[in-house]
Structure formats: C-alpha cells, structure tokens
C-alpha cells in the first residue's frame, strides 16, 4: 500500500501559530505553536485535560479556535486540505452489524476512493484475517485497528492519531509502532497525542508537552531528559508547570 506522497523532512505538513481556544474564562488552548514536517512523527504529551484533544479537533475543523492560525501543506484548514488528512480521535464510531470489509466500503464511497485500496489498508493494520467478521464481535484493540484502517484508507499525507495504542496487547503495540514508523518512512507526517510517555519515546522524532493549554516544552526527547532519564524530565516539567499554575 502506498500511503501519501513521498516528501522531504523540510516540507511543513502542519503549521499552527498562536492557537487559542477559550470557553468563557477557561483557556483550553493558550497560544500553542506547532510545526510538523513531512516524514516526521511528532508527539503531543501531557496529562488529561492538557489540551491535546482540543488541539486535534481544532485542526480537523471539529472545533473553531478563538484565535490563531492553522495551515495544512501551506493552506488554511478547509475541505480541500482536510482531504489530505486521515484521523482517529477518541473511540471510533463503528456499525456493529457490518464486517470490516463492509465498513471500509462505506468509507471508500464517502471519501470517493477506489474499493481496491481497502486491501492495502487492511493489510497495513494486519486485519486481513478478520475482514469478514462483524465489528460487534471485535475487541477494543481490533476496533482501534479498524479505525486506523479507515484513517489510512484515502492515502493521506498527514495522519492524526489520539492514543493509537489504546486497547492493544503488547504484540499489537509493537506492530502499531512499526506501522507509524513505516508511514513516516513513506513521507507521511504523523501527529500523535498520548499520555503514555514510554510509547511516544519509541516512535517520535520530536515532542511537545502541554499542560493547561500551554506549551511547556518542544523539542527532542533527549532534550527533555534529566541525567538521561526522559521520564524524570517529563515529570519534573509537569511539577514545575503545576506549581506555576497554583
């Protein structure tokens, strides 16, 4: 399966500048900047409520930002740019009476892509053996795999995944890492949100740590580490940010 269009690390797939999202006096996002390049795996880290999902929904057009700008491949977010984006945010909504094959045929028709692309999407997420089973009999991990197959179906150039290893067993988690890195190897930009530092550390080229809607760190995982310990650096950062908020 060919996903996306091969690119270079210098191409900007996603650029977010000074993004704000306010709900009354609550600032879910408070001036976030972010750039993801083609062929890069970029991780959003932070505790629950940090603003990760809000940011992803804003860049997908599911929520309107209070202010700021979002560009996908150099163009403002719109119907044409979102056609180049695949996303899985929160638990995928699936029809329990349909098989994986039938589900993907529906999405292929909705996205206007050939049905023969279904085979590649199923193969990439290792679901060819389960394609004829009804979705209602799937485990949570299998539902997530199918959700990611849907996100990949239109061969997007930018993939957005919220907790991509959710519900997967250790073998599935390892396979998902391989899928993510293979996508980046084909020039696809991948944006991942997670609160699982260990998983992000295995696949991401750069990370951003959010707390209370603000950027606390952006850069390499090595730069986040304290005495070589990434986890220690991450939690020290959270403690410092929490003390500042109080």
Q: Mind sketching the topology for me?
A:
Layout: E1 12-23, E2 26-37, E3 41-45, H1 52-59, E4 67-72, E5 75-76, H2 79-82, E6 85-88, H3 100-111, H4 118-124, H5 140-152, E7 158-162, H6 170-185, E8 189-194, H7 197-203, E9 206-211, E10 214-219, H8 221-224, H9 230-245
Parallel strand pairs: 3-8, 3-9, 6-7, 7-8
Antiparallel strand pairs: 1-2, 1-4, 4-5, 9-10
GO molecular function, one term: ATP binding
InterPro entries: AAA+_ATPase, ABC_transporter-like_ATP-bd, P-loop_NTPase
Keywords: ATP-binding, Nucleotide-binding, Transport
Q: Which terms would index this structure?
A:
alpha/beta; globular; 246 residues; transport; ATP binding; 6-stranded mixed sheet; 10 strands
In short:
By secondary structure, the protein is α/β, with parallel strands linked by helices.
How would you explain this protein's 3D organization?
This protein is 35% helix and 26% strand. With 246 residues, it is an alpha/beta fold. The chain has a domain of 71 residues. The strands form 2 sheets. It has a 6-stranded mixed beta sheet, sandwiched between helices. Strands 2-1-4-5 form a 4-stranded antiparallel beta sheet, with helices on one face. It is globular. The termini are far apart. About 2% of the residues have low confidence. Keywords: ATP-binding, Nucleotide-binding, Transport. It holds the Pfam family ABC_tran. GO terms for molecular function: ATP binding; ATP hydrolysis activity. This is ATP-binding cassette domain-containing protein.
List SSEs in N-to-C order: EEEHEEHEHHHEHEHEEHH
Q: How would you sum up the major sheet?
A: 6 strands, mixed
Strand order of the largest sheet: 6-7-8-3-9-10
Q: Strand-residue fraction?
A: 25-35%
Average residue pLDDT: 88
The residue ranges in which pLDDT falls below 50 over 5 or more consecutive positions are: 5-10
* Helical residues, percent: 25-40%
Q: Could you tell me the radius of gyration in angstroms? A: 18 Å
- Our measurement of the CA-to-CA distance between the termini, rounded to an integer number of angstroms, reads 50 Å
The structural class is alpha/beta
Protein name: ATP-binding cassette domain-containing protein
Organism: Streptomyces bathyalis
Family: Belongs to the ABC transporter superfamily.
Domain ABC transporter: 14-237
């Amino acid at each position: 399966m060919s996903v996306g269009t091969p690119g270079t690390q210098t191409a900007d797939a996603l650029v977010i500048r000074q993004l704000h999202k306010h709900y009354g006096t609550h600032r879910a996002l408070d001036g976030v900047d972010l750039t993801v390049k083609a062929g890069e795996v970029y991780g959003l880290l932070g505790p629950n409520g940090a603003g990760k999902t809000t940011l992803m929904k804003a860049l997908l057009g599911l929520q309107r930002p209070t202010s700021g700008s979002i560009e996908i491949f150099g163009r403002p977010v719109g119907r044409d740019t979102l056609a180049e984006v695949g996303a899985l945010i929160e638990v995928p909504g699936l029809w329990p009476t349909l098989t994986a094959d039938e589900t993907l045929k529906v999405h292929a028709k909705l996205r206007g892509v050939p049905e023969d692309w279904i085979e590649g999407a199923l193969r990439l997420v290792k679901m060819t053996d389960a394609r004829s089973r009804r979705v209602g009999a799937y485990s949570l991990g299998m539902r997530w795999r199918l959700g990611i197959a849907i996100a990949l179906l239109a061969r997007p150039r930018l993939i957005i995944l919220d907790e991509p290893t959710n519900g997967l067993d250790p073998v599935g988690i390892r396979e998902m890492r391989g899928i993510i890195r293979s996508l980046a190897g084909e020039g696809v930009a991948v944006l991942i949100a997670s609160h699982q530092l260990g998983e992000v550390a295995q696949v991401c080229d750069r990370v951003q740590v959010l707390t209370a809607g603000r950027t606390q760190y952006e850069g390499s995982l090595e730069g986040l580490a304290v005495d070589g310990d990434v986890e220690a650096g991450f939690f020290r950062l959270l403690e410092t940010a929490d003390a500042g908020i109080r």
